[in-house]
Design goal:
The chain has 552 residues and is an alpha/beta fold. The protein contains 21 helices and 19 strands. The longest helix is centred in the C-terminal third of the chain and has 25 residues.
Length: 552
């Protein structure tokens, strides 16, 4: 048996006793073998003769060319031949004379997605049915043809399927980890069960444990694409990337944190077939700098399996705030571990960042050439830690200043137990409540306050956090710091925002006794969220975009 899958082989034509070509001979390491077998070109001709009314054809694998010549003689156009071996194409007909002929195309590239794009362009050009023929011997001839058969079949199906076949379920491999939005995504995928099929792999463990599982899932489940959050599961050694590259699967990566603090110019994460979805359009330039081409805006939303509308008699709290103080994150990083020149700049950077929200990267805010040089010499982990230290400290200050404005209303703060150390008047001017699990209990808490206040993390440019959707979804009233995307996500009478600490004070004073106005605004926002901002809708949008980008 010839080991043709190592790509080191030569091909020649086989002729019968009457000098009529009948087959291809493959030669490797001095051994020869016929490709088509006893039936020879009958096998190829059967492919095209069994189909009626062929008005265009794509051939994956040229073979002897008998089936291609058959359609050439019938005047069928366009004709497209995909074959990475130029010597195969030269085995049949007047190859050179056909190079410039209109409506005949030879594709000899070896990159799957380049071929996909060329096929797609040809299909788009001709407003007619185009048939596709996979040479029966080629999928066993070379790994390339097995892979290209799988991928081109998807391109072909997506462009030529009839309307009733457009309901074909998309198959998704979800890389799952116990992390923010993971449950919401999984619930949304379950809600789309009539449109998709999905399977999952837990990547919250050792890479050597989940790589074999992913390999098995790819082989048995045959997903159309892989779905991840924040590139989770991608290891520093590039093991997962190698698996995905070999399978030539597209990846949808939904960023719901700052990519500037995650990717950090790490080349191992760059992969040409990744579709980036981001909760904040402000990160588009960063992704483009990183070399990503397919980028789409996909904000957060609400999971209505957890956040359902409900009513509670009376309001237990005047003002409520849910969020941590960032103290623990700040304490994780020893600022004295950085070069002295960088440590000296941290306080000034934090102050400027919390006051002006200049967005990002903190490295760009460094004042001197010496400090910028010191930063550039840090390794990736140190750079990320330095930037995180600034963002977390600045967000902590900003959040504390927002919450201070609510003190006149004796607010209740649900968060980590460090709030007592950084906010005066604990137990007298305000009360603390331990965090409850995300979901039903938190939804209940939102409804118990007259006003919920929101302070968005300073890592965002113009996006919003999940609280903007969750609070109104369950019937609560929210005052949030203003972000540009609010104007796109909601109508003007569906949200209340503030652009300064003084404006927050003014709006707290105004809305605290305006129950009817609060109810009216919250109800309008809830209806908007119900119809436009659920996780089911977000995942449907993501899937549609992946279909468009990768011809799924």
């Amino acid at each position: 048996m010839l080991n043709v899958k190592n790509f080191d082989y030569t091909l020649s034509l086989f002729y019968d006793e009457n000098s009529i070509k009948q087959d291809i001979i493959i030669e490797q390491n001095g051994k020869k073998k016929r490709v088509l077998g006893r039936r020879g070109i009958e096998t190829e001709l059967f492919l095209v003769q069994r189909e009626e009314n062929i008005t265009g054809a794509i051939f994956i694998g040229a073979g002897t060319g008998a089936h291609i010549q058959y359609l050439l003689d019938k005047g069928v156009r366009p004709l497209v031949v995909v074959d990475k071996k130029n010597d195969i194409l030269k085995l049949w007909g007047e190859y050179s004379s056909l190079l410039d002929e209109k409506d005949i195309y030879f594709i000899t590239e070896t990159d799957t997605y380049t071929i996909q794009n060329k096929i797609n362009e040809i299909i788009e050009k001709y407003n007619r049915k185009i048939s596709i023929f996979f040479h029966p011997a080629y999928t066993n001839l070379d790994f390339f043809y097995k892979d290209i058969t799988y991928h081109i079949d998807r391109v072909f199906a997506s462009k030529n399927r009839e309307k009733d076949s457009q309901k074909k379920k998309v198959r998704i491999l979800l890389l799952k980890k116990d992390y923010f939005v993971s449950t919401e995504i999984e619930n949304a995928l379950k809600g789309l069960s009539e449109e998709i099929e999905y399977t999952e792999v837990d990547v919250g463990q050792s890479i050597d444990l989940y790589i074999p599982t992913i390999l098995k899932k790819i082989e048995n489940f045959r997903p159309d694409f892989i779905l991840a959050v924040n590139h989770m599961g991608f290891d520093y050694d590039g093991k997962l990337l190698a698996v995905i590259n070999k399978a030539q699967l597209p990846v949808a990566s939904w960023f719901v944190d700052s990519p500037e603090l995650i990717l950090d110019n790490l080349s191992y994460l760059k992969y040409p077939n990744v579709g980036i979805f981001t909760w904040d359009r402000g990160f588009f330039p960063f992704f483009k700098e990183q070399g990503y081409e397919n980028i789409s805006y996909l904000p957060l939303a609400t999971d209505f399996t957890q956040y359902k509308i409900g009513k509670i008699a009376g309001k237990q709290y005047s003002v409520a705030f849910v969020g941590n103080s960032w103290t623990r994150q700040i304490e994780k990083i020893d600022i004295n571990s950085f070069p002295k020149i960088l440590t000296m700049e941290i306080n000034n950077l934090v102050e400027e960042y919390s006051r002006e929200k200049p967005h990002f990267l903190p490295a760009k805010l460094l004042k001197s050439a010496a400090s910028r040089k010191a930063f550039s010499e840090l390794d990736s982990k140190k750079k990320r830690a330095y930037q995180e230290s600034i963002v977390w400290r600045a967000t902590g200050i900003y959040r504390r200043e927002c919450v201070l404005r609510s003190i006149p209303y004796k607010p209740i703060i649900m968060g980590d137990n460090n709030w007592g150390a950084i906010l005066p008047g604990h137990g007298k001017d305000w009360k603390w409540k331990a965090p409850v699990p995300y979901g039903i209990e938190l939804a209940k808490f939102y409804r118990q306050a007259k006003i919920n206040i929101n302070c968005i993390s300073l890592q965002l440019y113009e996006g919003v956090n999940q609280r903007v959707f969750d609070v109104p979804a369950v019937g609560g009233f929210l005052i949030t710091d203003h972000q540009k995307c609010l104007e796109e996500l909601f109508a003007e009478d569906e949200y209340v925002s503030y652009k300064s600490f003084d404006e927050l004070e003014d709006k707290l004073a105004y809305y605290i006794d305006k129950e009817s106005e609060r109810i009216k605004i919250a109800e309008k926002a809830r209806k908007r969220i119900e119809h436009e901002h659920s996780y089911v809708i977000r995942l449907r949008t993501l899937i549609a975009q992946m279909r468009e980008w990768y011809y799924i």
